Amino acid sequence: MTLSRHRRPLVGALAAVTVLGLGACASNDATATPQPSGSAGGSAGTVPAGQPDVNGDGKVVIGVLSPGDINDKGYYQSFVDGAEAFASSKGWTVIKRGNVAVTDALNAARALCQQKVDMVALGASELKDAIPASEEAVCAKTAWYVPSSYNIEQTPKIVLSKDDPNQSILAAGYATGLLMQARGDTKAGFVTGAEADFSKASAAAFKAGIRMVLPNATVVNTFTGDFNDSAKAKEAVQAQMSQGVKAVYPYLGGATDAATAQANTGNLITLTPGTDRCASTSPKFDISVIFDPGQYFAAALQLFADGKLTMGVAKEWQLGVDQYPTIKICNGTAEQNAKLATLMSDIGSKKVDVAAEVKRLGS
C-alpha cells in the first residue's frame, strides 16, 4: 500500500491527492464517477493532442506502476482496479506492474513508454523518481498521472492528484472517538509501517480527532517499519491489546487484514486505510476511511477519455466538499452519523481548522 499522500496506505491514501478540473457534482449514485471541485482549466497547463490516443497508434493503453502489492485489497489494488474497470468499459488496455522498487522507478517508466502506452500512471508518490522520464524523448507522446504527497514538484508534463490526509485522518479519529464514547473506552492505538513524516503526522491527526470527542483519551503509536509485514503488524496489535487498547487504526498496506483480524479477536474498534469495507466480515471493520485512489484515478481517466485531461496542473480533493474522500461509520447510530457528517461539512467549509486542531490536540 502506499502512503503517498496519505501515505494514503490505501495509505495511500494515500494513500496517499489532487486535481484535475472536473466540475463539482456529487452524486448519490454509488456508480457515478466522483467529480472534484474546482477547475484546472483556463490558460493553466496543456492538454496533450489526440487524447486519449496520445501516440496516435489507433488504440489506448494505460500503463500503471505501483510500489506495492497490487493484490493487497487496499490502496495499491484500489488504484489498479479503478484503472481496469474504467479501461474495460472503454475497450482500452491496461499494462500493470506491482512491487516496483523505488530505485527502479525511472527505468520502469521508460519501459512502459517503450510499450507505446498513452498514459503512465504512478500508483503512489513513492515512485516520484520516475517523473523525469516524462521529459524524455521515449515518453514524448504520453500523458502522466501522479498522486502527490506535497513533496512532488509540479512540472509541465504531469497532472498531480492530491488531498490533505490530515482532513481524512482527523475525521477518522473523530468517528473512532464517537464509537469509543459509546462503549466507555478511553485508549486507542495506531499501527503503521515506517516512522516517516507522513505516518507520524497521520498518527497525530488520528489522536487529535479522538480527543475532539474524548479530551482525555490516550493513543499508543507503533511503527513496525514495514507496511506489508503481516507478522509484525499482528505482533504490534497484540502488544497494544495487552496495554489495554480498545480501538486500533491499522494504517497499513498489505498487512491491513492480518492486523485487523488480530484486533477482531479482542473486539477492538477497527478502521480501513483507504477503502470502503463495511461489508467485510472477515476481517471486520467498524469505520471505513475512504480516500480511495481508484476513485480519484477514475475521474482522471474520464477526463482523459473526453480529451480534457490537462498536464501541468493540480487539484486537491476536499473532505466535506467532494464525494471523496469521506468517512463512514459502518453501523453508526443516527446521532453518530449526524455528528460525523457535521464535522466533515465543517471541515469542508473551513469552519474547523484541521491544522489547528491537530496542533492543539495531536501532540
UniProtKB/TrEMBL annotation:
<comment type="similarity">
    <text>Belongs to the BMP lipoprotein family.</text>
</comment>
<dbReference type="InterPro" id="IPR050957">
    <property type="entry name" value="BMP_lipoprotein"/>
</dbReference>
<keyword id="KW-0732">Signal</keyword>
<feature type="signal peptide">
    <location>
        <begin position="1"/>
        <end position="32"/>
    </location>
</feature>
<dbReference type="InterPro" id="IPR028082">
    <property type="entry name" value="Peripla_BP_I"/>
</dbReference>
<dbReference type="InterPro" id="IPR003760">
    <property type="entry name" value="PnrA-like"/>
</dbReference>
<dbReference type="Pfam" id="PF02608">
    <property type="entry name" value="Bmp"/>
</dbReference>
<feature type="region of interest" description="Disordered">
    <location>
        <begin position="31"/>
        <end position="54"/>
    </location>
</feature>
<keyword id="KW-0472">Membrane</keyword>
<keyword id="KW-0449">Lipoprotein</keyword>
<feature type="domain" description="ABC transporter substrate-binding protein PnrA-like">
    <location>
        <begin position="59"/>
        <end position="323"/>
    </location>
</feature>
<protein>
    <submittedName>
        <fullName>BMP family ABC transporter substrate-binding protein</fullName>
    </submittedName>
</protein>
<keyword id="KW-1003">Cell membrane</keyword>
